[in-house]
Amino acid sequence: MGLLARKDLLGLKELSAEEIKLILETAVPFKDLFYRQIKKVPTLRGKSVFTLFYEPSTRTRTSFELAGKMLSADVSSLSVATSSVVKGESLEDTGKTLDAMGANVIIIRHTAAGSPHLLAKTVKASVINAGDGTHEHPTQGLLDLFTIKEKKGRIEGLKVVILGDAAHSRVAKSNIWGLIKLGAEVTVVGPPTLLPPGLEEMGAKVSYDLKTALKDADVINVLRIQLERQKKGLFPSQREYTELFGLTKDKLAFAKDDLLILHPGPMNRGLEISLEVATSKNAFIEEQVTNGVAIRMALLYLLTGGGKTDELID
Amino acid sequence: MSLLIKGGKVIDPATGLVEYLDILLEKGKIIKIAENIGNDQAETILNAKGKLVAPGLIDMHVHLREPGFEDKEDIASGTRAAAAGGFTSIACMPNTKPVADDQTVIEFIKSKAAREGLVNVYPIGAITKGLEGKEITEVGYLYKAGIVALSDDGKGVMNGEVMRRALEYAKLFNLPIIAHCEDENLASEGMMNEGYMSTVLGLKGIPNAAEAVMIARDLILAEMIDAPVHIAHVSAKESVELIRQAKARGVKVTAEVTPHHFTLTDEAVASFDTATKVNPPLRTKADIEAILGGMQDGTIDVIATDHAPHTKEEKAVEYLYAPFGMVGLETAFSLVYMKLIQSGVLTLAQALEKLTIQPAKILGLQDKGVLQEGKDADIVLIDLDKKWTVEKEKLCSKGKNTPFHGWEMQGKIMTTIVGGKIVYCAEN
Q: Distance between CA B138 and CA B172 in Å, rounded?
């Protein structure tokens, strides 16, 4: 057990505000590493970190691998295509195999919600959820919180809009839990077909009107729209989606000047966000990526435990 | 072989009997129900002091899995589980492999049950060939082979025209159709109840409407055709209301609910325990309240388990990949006792009625579900005060997929008698 009083990080729903704050604070010194000549500390020397991705991903996987390497952990990656997964090995058995290899941390991405929970029950290693189906993507939620805190100086009291396909977005769920726990006011905006039931019960507001929601928003997090949703009839066409819910320059006219724009990536430029908006001074989409590595370093550190961060980094 | 059940409190919802009486059984029949029957009348005496003596329970919705899925359950293990749960008669669903859509499969089940079954087994035939929802089966041959109802349980019959013709044709043989009501498109890829919990867990939801829409269709068809339809495993509040209204109009509809649907809500899914994955899914408190109301006013006629065993390997996977279903035979009565009787929703007689005479009537089972001289000697002895803990590894069923593992239960089946023979006796 590390400095977080839990073995695994499966979702932000389970975390207390204090735990979230601890992770965010811990990430600050790790981010400083990026501005050094030698981007490596010995913090996790001798620890084994495995990434186990059942779903294609470049950024999240690379981000975790880099985080592990910058902390001097031994990072191994299980690739679905070449592993026994294709032979139909159960997740439990794969987990036990990694345990037997002495894994300290297993980072799992999976199309099926709850897979990290199943793995966590099976293995001794710490499990980090790197996105499970449409359940949660806690590290993305944390890096979004980190970016908001960094740019706005606070989270409490901010008005945050989450825009788009909340029904199929694990990013949306993790964001909503994290933001609400830290005292932000969350409004989820999208067409009714892409908004799941129970958002109000989670503590968010729901709106179908982007322009009104933008008016007093401090932050907007634009979700990726998967093109297959259109084929399933959840919205009639891409151009109508963009017209109503795409974040374009003309809609920004309704927003505050200092609106912070986030996007978890990868973007569908011209669909949910226009190129102009994505590259505007209000958008910090690339910095989110840097922050992602810092957050993941903080988590690896906190879950595996160690000395004080400042000692280890200096 | 004669058996005398002495000193128990005899309860029979069909006749309204509640009295301390002795019951003498001989040659598979109830010979005598009276006070103080002499011990010299029988070869074996069964002391029922402090026990409730009721008609053997009848479960009209069981998946015995044989033929084809014997790793999940077979007729021997499934009927053992039934006996342990106090069920003396069960009706088994046709989604076997091969599908029970042909008289040879029905004959196989019947002969296997006669040889290896501990309780009476009544096969249900498929409505459509291969459960494909397209072509109706040879209902006449199935009837001759001994089916008691028709169902495509596990799937809804999506095509309204096919359902219409099936309801019409089944009238020829007075066979009820047991409707698994689910609109495949509305339910598509769903894994649990649609609502707050499905959003939180990221598991695709099945809305109440997926069930209710189909029930509405089948009620309208049954009304038009004036044919009997039995609605399987009602889970949604809207469904209860639709059935209530249809009954008021005189539609020949009956309905069942499972113990898990009146016991658990979708909050049980929170841990991603695949034992909670069931179709229709566990719903919400509001749905349970509607179901309880439906049981009180008679909208819901029957309690049935939808006993659906699966192997450990099949359930020890990601929630998405786990098959639907949970075992239910061995926990049913205790849940009925605790959730319905102890909590004051139903009287003992009202609850037992839904577990005995009501399913017997719907399936046309002669001489079953009633304690009367001349009727079949299918009887259960229950200790209402006895507490026990569910241990899945100790279940008689091959299926260990129960969400009730570790639950403290009250109300235990002590002895099960089928055709005058003791087929189950609880360890003390």
A: 12
**8 Å CB contact of A114 and B318:** yes
Question: CA-nearest residue of chain A to B191?
Answer: A113
Q: Residues B306, B376, B378, B383: which is the catalytic one?
A: B306
Set of chain B residues whose Cβ sits within 8 Å of the Cβ of A201: 196
Based on the fold, state whether residues B188 and B328 are members of the same structural domain. yes
- How many CB atoms lie under 10 A from the CB of residue B289? 13
CATH number at residue B248: 3.20.20.140
% of chain B residues with pLDDT over 90: 99
Last residue of a domain, one of B363, B389, B413: B363
Q: Which residue from B196, B202, B317 is facing A90, i.e. has the nearest CB?
A: B317
Question: What pLDDT is attached to residue B168?
Answer: 98
Q: How far from A220 is each of A169, A187, A244, A248, CA to CA, in Å?
A: 15, 9, 16, 12
ipTM value? 0.93
Over the stretch B334-387, which tens digit does the pLDDT of each residue have?
A: 999 999 999 999 999 999 999 999 999 999 999 999 999 999 999 999 999 999
Asked if the structure places residue B371 within a domain, the reply is no
Range of the domain at B390: 3-53+376-425
The 10 Å CB-count burial string (b at 16+, else e) for B250-281 is ebbbbbbbbbbbbbbbbebbeebbbbbbbbbb
Cβ neighbours of A162 in B, within 8 Å:
none
Across the range B223-236, mean pLDDT stands at 98
Cβ-nearest to B272 among A13, A92, A118: A118
> What does the pLDDT look like over A245-283, one tens digit per residue?
999 999 999 999 999 999 999 999 999 999 999 999 999
Inter-chain CB proximity B200 and A114 less than 8 Å:
no
Same domain for B287 and B194: yes
Please list the residues that pair with B418 across neighbouring strands.
B421
User: CATH number for the domain including B412?
Assistant: 2.30.40.10
How far A199 CA sits from the closest chain B CA (Å)? Answer: 7
Q: How many CB atoms lie within 10 A of CB A92?
A: 17
> And the tokens for A153?
């100086």
Minimal C-alpha gap between B197 and chain A (Å): 8
> How many domains does one find in chain B?
2
Q: What is the mean pLDDT of chain B?
A: 97
Shared-domain flag, residues B354 and B395: no
pLDDT value of position A81: 58
A67 to chain B nearest CA, in Å?
A: 27
According to the model, what pLDDT value does residue A86 have?
53
Residues B322 and B318: their CA atoms lie apart, in Å, by 6
Does residue B313 share a domain with residue B169? yes
- B369 assigned to some structural domain: no
Residue B96 lies in a domain: yes
- Note whether B14 and B112 are same-domain residues: no
Of B196, B205, B318, the CB nearest to A91: B318
Q: Which of A179, A180, A178, A184 is nearest to A158 (CA)?
A: A184
- Nearest-CA neighbor of B60 among B232, B291, B309, B227? B232
Look at the alpha carbons of A253, A254, A257, A262 in this order and tell me if their dihedral is positive or negative: negative
Task: Say if B368 falls within a structural domain.
Answer: no
pLDDT band at A104 (very low <50, low <70, confident <90, very high): very high
Residue A87 has pLDDT above 60, yes or no: no
**AA letter at B212:** A
Question: Looking at the structure, do residues B30 and B162 belong to the same domain, yes or no?
Answer: no
Residues B415 and B273 grouped into a single domain: no
Statement to judge: residues B292 and B407 lie in one domain: no
Q: Alpha helix (H) ranges present in chain A?
A: 17-32, 59-70, 91-100, 115-122, 138-152, 170-181, 199-202, 210-215, 228-231, 238-245, 249-252, 275-278, 285-304, 309-313
